[in-house]
Specification:
Order of helices and strands: EHEEEHEHHEEEEEEEEHEHEEHE
Distance between the termini: 74 Å
Number of helices: 7
Largest sheet: 5 strands, antiparallel
Shape: globular
Number of strands: 17
Radius of gyration: 21 Å
Number of domains: 1
Structural class: alpha+beta
Amino acid sequence: MSSTSKKAPRKPRRVKVCLFYGSRGPLTEEHVFGDWLKKLGYGGSGIREYVDGAAPEIQVGGPFSKTLKILCGPCNNVWTSGMEDAAKPLLINMFSGKQTELDEAAQRDLARWAFKTAAILAHVTRRQEQLPVEHCRAFHRSDEPPPGVFIRIGAASVSTGQHGQQIGESRFLQLPMVMTAGSKRFSIPAYSARFRLFTVVFDVFGSSVSDKVATDLGFAPGDLQVQADVGDDLGRVLVQIWPPKNPTVWWPPVNSLDVVGGIDGLAQVEQFQSIPVILPPPAGVPPVS
């Protein structure tokens, strides 16, 4: 007597595409943090700890040897490599603790590097929360952080944890927002991607208003945007570099992020007051409040 069993249907194979360009492979290994840091003698060997859920994942390896197969060759070897080259002298100066003057060109160089790095860091673990695909694609098309993205920099001390000095750390938070326009309520997806490398902190806040939401509210697609402002207290620890608000800013800011508990402390304070901005306001449409 024989029996037969049905095989479970195969799940469709997921086609991997370049994070920024969207092209199908072949994909290449991209360093999470530029390998030029390792070549300059930073880091050495150590422990990499990734917290994604209840159990942390521990890896033995240098902090600047971690790679992800996530970018196509042109993006990896040309486009993002150029971002590393542009930001490198600024970052080296900041890593040394020197006060650094940032004109608009320098602010753009750091903002491009920060957005690229935040997008890649969001893929280090198997979490589902990642930067929106449309933001990554728009970043590639325009060669700068897309509309709806605000980037700020700060400073914080290198902390010491269970595995020794933590020369780098990152956090990613989804920040859905509910807003009202007249009698209508609508939801806007938003995120905050923060990371610290040595004593330099980058905070990337992004949001996107779908064409449907804009249309439902009587606006043309792209007219309704969310602007993220910080209060006076956080304005002393985070300086906006994208979009540039001032022709020149200085790093480090007036106060260190240590006063609010570093990156983790930012999550415990009211970080952003999200202000809807209408560009331009259509005639007869009440202002969003």
